[in-house]
DNA sequence: GCGATGACCATACATAGTGTTCAGTCATGA
DNA sequence: TCATGACTGAACACTATGTATGGTCATCGC
């Protein structure tokens, strides 16, 4: 039915990719809100009609970029969320590794993630996407906590899900501030150390 | 020079107040971004020209509302930031009182505060305002921590300012989620307990 | 080769919002 | 009675969004 000239099948339309690439590049230096569709398509070398053929709007394109970025995010946090296959790792070290991987993810995708953090409040689609992501991380963290007798002993009598959600959102905020270059979190070492410190204090205060 | 008909002096122009009141009311149920100047002036019963005479735009009006709301905020946190005049209060109890006062402040001014949290990322003026506020709270918290030998013993070797900033931003985020009705923080008891728990764990882990 | 198909583009359009301008109204105070 | 200053209403230029139209061009079946 379609007139294809390259790969035999399952080839994501090239224009679509070009738009997403250009959009991601622009977001590295520009605000989502300040970007117009005109600028995006100019950078992508694509017509206005094509853009609206592939995406319902700016938001929809951003949503796609976010989905791709956080897809990698799940793997990033895995060292801590899925306790080592064989050797029982020190939870503190695993946690630090997860936090560090999160920092890498955020800095690599700073533009896209900054954009959704600033936009999910005013767009239903983006809100659902982001709250869903946070809920996923929260659930993973809560599960990991509940599997840890030491942590559970400390948290006795408190709402584990709420604590897990707090720590998740603390991460979101600090990573975001780092991506915005707000001190003192623009210093990656400070960011990771501080986040790690609060998580550890909350979960394993015995130290 | 001006033709006044009421109070003798220092009378803030009535139209300006009407705009601010209407704006605050609208923000209780609507998003800042989704509100147009047309709607605001319609609700206020004021002409477009008058609006732009008193405010440079939507953002400037919001900034004014935020300044007024957080003016009260400084007092709200005072029980903890400025240790009691005479009797040495239990820092944990004082902290809880401060957190609870913060919750009251946020719920009273939910619309305005939600608006700035969602907008400071894309407006230089609002950014400066909000980051300044957070810096103020952070400084107060850091000072309070440094005055407390018990807390300082625990935090030995870590960046106190960074920890104070983390806890400040954690508060910002959790209060915001509560104002948005995001579970589990839409439950005020959970909000206050969890925030209190993380602060205490981080600062006074001895229990 | 020939016509159909579908991807793509340029242009134009309707709609909506922003911020400015300007002529005009109306109460007050001199 | 006139001048002043607060305020309005309407129009304007500009920018952005999302849609609709007509046309180009490569490819495919035949």
UniProtKB/TrEMBL annotation, chains A, B:
Residues 36-55 bind DNA. Keywords: DNA-binding. GO terms for molecular function: DNA-binding transcription factor activity; transcription cis-regulatory region binding. This is HTH-type transcriptional regulator EthR. Pfam families: EthR_C, TetR_N. Residues 13-73 form the HTH tetR-type domain. It comes from the Bacteria.
């Amino acid at each position: 039915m379609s007139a294809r000239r390259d790969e035999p099948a399952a080839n994501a339309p090239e224009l679509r990719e070009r738009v997403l690439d250009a959009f991601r590049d622009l977001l590295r230096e520009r605000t989502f809100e300040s970007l117009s569709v005109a600028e995006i398509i100019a950078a992508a070398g694509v017509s206005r009609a094509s853009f609206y053929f592939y995406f319902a709007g700016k938001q929809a394109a951003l949503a796609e970029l976010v989905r791709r970025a956080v897809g990698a995010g799940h793997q990033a946090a895995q060292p801590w969320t899925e306790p080592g296959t064989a050797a029982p790792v020190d939870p503190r070290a695993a946690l630090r590794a997860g936090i560090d991987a999160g920092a890498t993810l955020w800095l690599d995708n700073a533009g896209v993630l900054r954009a959704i953090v600033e936009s999910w409040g005013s767009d239903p689609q983006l809100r659902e996407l982001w709250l869903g992501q946070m809920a996923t991380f929260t659930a993973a963290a809560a599960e990991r906590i509940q599997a840890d007798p030491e942590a559970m002993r400390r948290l006795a009598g408190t709402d584990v899900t709420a604590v897990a959600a707090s720590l998740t959102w603390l991460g979101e905020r600090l990573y975001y501030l780092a991506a915005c270059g707000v001190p003192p979190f623009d210093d990656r070492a400070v960011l990771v150390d501080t986040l790690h410190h609060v998580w550890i204090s909350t979960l394993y205060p015995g130290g």
